[in-house]
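ok, trying the design again with the full structure, not the truncated one.
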């Protein structure tokens, strides 16, 4: 890692109070870009696992997460990792979890996958694992593009975003993967933000105490794909939560909803202007505000229905 890239990683970590130690899940020397949300997410995950004295094994499909390790024979991961094909991380993890059970072992099996391997290419095996309620944790770090192969659009890409395959802006809205997983009735599903580390860590601890399929969606800024400054990564995801573009909430068994943060009226315009992937005029901030408000009204209704 270059000195400049390492300093940006350190700056991002300092914003959320991350420690730096040799026993981290993600160790120094990784190949991630400066300002990478996935890097901060891995570090937060590793911090909770260490605090809870939980061992884990990772199943990672083709994505930035598997490139993170660096070149053979070295690795920047501090735990055993299985590199899977693009579509099959949940299938591999299912087998790993079954072997763990047969051997009487207690480590966690965690899928760590991007949105391409979750929303699109891997959704069949994810759905199958959820339907069987396999005992694993699935974390999707959602950077809203195929970041490792040139920045193509995925079904997680928001409307209006410029990518290498949508040079005029994506026409379709982002897929609601949380609703899909809730419809499977998985024991636990939650959204995560690296700008809210206490909420992030609490949800990881909650997932660790539950058995069965647990699905976690991490909003993961990608300075390269989002065409944003690396130093703005934490601010971007903080703005997404504050403006209602990325709601923080939890779902138990597909029926019990709980909201974790309310929008504070922040104008979403700043979120869009800090990224050059949204061309001027491609996105109407007021329409984005309206869509976000409607989403929250639905989530509030679902939360109130269960509490009533």
């Amino acid at each position: 890692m270059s000195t400049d890239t390492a300093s940006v990683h350190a700056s991002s970590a300092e914003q959320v109070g991350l420690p730096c130690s040799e026993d981290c899940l993600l160790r120094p020397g990784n190949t991630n870009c400066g300002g990478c949300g996935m890097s901060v997410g891995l570090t937060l995950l590793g911090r909770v696992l260490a605090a809870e004295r939980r061992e884990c094994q990772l199943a990672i499909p083709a994505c930035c997460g598997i490139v993170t390790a660096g070149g053979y024979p070295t690795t920047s991961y501090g735990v055993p990792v299985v590199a899977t094909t693009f579509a099959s991380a949940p299938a591999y993890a299912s087998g790993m979890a079954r072997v763990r059970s047969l051997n009487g072992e207690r480590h966690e099996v965690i899928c760590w996958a991007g949105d391409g391997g979750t929303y699109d290419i891997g959704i069949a095996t994810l759905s199958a694992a959820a339907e069987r309620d396999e005992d694993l944790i699935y974390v999707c770090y959602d950077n809203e593009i195929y970041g490792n192969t040139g920045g193509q659009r995925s079904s997680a890409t928001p409307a209006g975003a410029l990518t290498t395959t949508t040079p005029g802006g994506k026409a379709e809205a982002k897929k609601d993967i949380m609703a899909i997983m809730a419809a499977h009735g998985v024991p636990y599903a939650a959204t995560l933000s690296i700008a809210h580390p206490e909420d992030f860590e609490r949800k990881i601890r909650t997932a660790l105490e539950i058995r069965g399929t647990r699905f976690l969606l991490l909003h993961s800024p990608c300075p390269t794909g989002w065409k944003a400054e690396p130093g703005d990564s934490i601010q971007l995801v903080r703005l997404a939560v504050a403006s209602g573009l990325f709601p923080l909430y939890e779902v138990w068994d597909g029926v019990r909803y709980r909201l974790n943060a309310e929008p504070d009226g922040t104008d979403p315009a700043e979120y869009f202007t800090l990224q050059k992937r949204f061309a001027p005029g491609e996105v109407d901030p007021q329409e984005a505000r309206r869509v976000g408000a409607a989403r929250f009204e639905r989530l509030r209704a679902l939360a109130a229905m269960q509490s009533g």
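Keeping the full-length input from now on. Residues 3-307 form a domain with the Rossmann fold fold (CATH 3.40.50.970).
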